[in-house]
Amino acid sequence: MSEFNNFFKSAFSVDNVIFGFDEGDLKILLIKRGADPFSGMWALPGDLVYPNEDLNTAASRVLEELTGISDVYLEQVQTFGAVNRHPLGRVITVAYYSLININKYMVTAASFAQKAKWHSISTVKALAFDHNQILSACFDLLKQRVRTRPLGFELLPLKFTLTALQHLYEAILETELDKRNFRKKILSMNLLIDLEEAQEGVAHRPAKLYKFDSDRYEKLVKDGFSFELKESKKKMLLENS
């Protein structure tokens, strides 16, 4: 059995990529590490898996221990196993991602997390370990999925405007979309219910409020769809000038 000893010297970890949406801005939940390696650096909420623990249980445990967030659906995305990705030894990590409504959860840093904070994804700089690579992979997946399944149910409040929904898609796709085309497409899917209500307490003309049809939403999540969108004419003109 001695020839197999080297195969049992690797550790496993889990890293959680938690996306949220707030006032037109796509955000990612990060922790500031208070332990080596990479003490003082921002990182994804992640840690080692216990020997007697399965991966899904570990992902939920680690997220709650470091950020206080619990009871969220975590989906396994990809495994990262570069030999030298962890400075203390061979650690293979499994990335999970989730989409949550920021306003429904209170973030509380604990364990070796000095801080736990939402960051605009556009401002994220160098992260610990290979966490920039992990974040990029999960963000790419999100961009693919926004075109094939509805995502707003997890990220938007119960009642929202078409403008807020468009801003969500623009934040994920990192582009400005044509307003008329977007509204025509989204309304043709029969995904939204017109609440026959309008915004209150706004300085501009109040916009109509909608909510998702939960049955239709679940069907589209299961069956998928093709949701190709046009960029705004203004953006295309700027790029071609």
Task: Give an overview of the whole structure.
With 241 residues, the protein is an alpha+beta fold. The chain has 2 domains: 8-145, Nucleoside Triphosphate Pyrophosphohydrolase (Alpha-Beta Complex), CATH 3.90.79.10; 152-240, Arc Repressor Mutant, subunit A (Orthogonal Bundle). Helix content is 30%, strand content 26%. It has helices at 55-67, 131-145, 152-155, 162-173, 179-188, 214-223, 233-240, and strands at residues 11-22, 25-33, 42-43, 46-48, 75-80, 91-100, 113-120, 192-198, 208-212. The strands form 2 sheets. Strands 1, 2, 3, 4, 5, 6 and 7 form a 7-stranded mixed beta sheet that branches. Strand 2 (25-33) and strand 3 (42-43) form a beta hairpin. The chain is elongated.
Distance between the termini: 68 Å
Question: How much β-strand is present in the residues?
Answer: 25-35%
Total separate domains:
2
CATH level 4 superfamily of the largest domain:
Nucleoside Triphosphate Pyrophosphohydrolase
CATH class of the largest domain, please? Answer: Alpha Beta
Write down the CATH topology of the largest domain.
Nucleoside Triphosphate Pyrophosphohydrolase
Q: Main beta sheet: strand number and arrangement?
A: 7 strands, mixed
Instruction: Report the uncertain regions.
Output: 236-241
SSE arrangement, N to C: EEEEHEEEHHHHEEHH
Average pLDDT score: 91
CATH architecture of the largest domain: Alpha-Beta Complex
Q: Give the helix tally.
A: 7
Helical fraction:
25-40%
Total number of beta strands: 9
Class derived from helix and strand content:
alpha+beta
Shape: elongated
**Estimated radius of gyration:** 20 Å
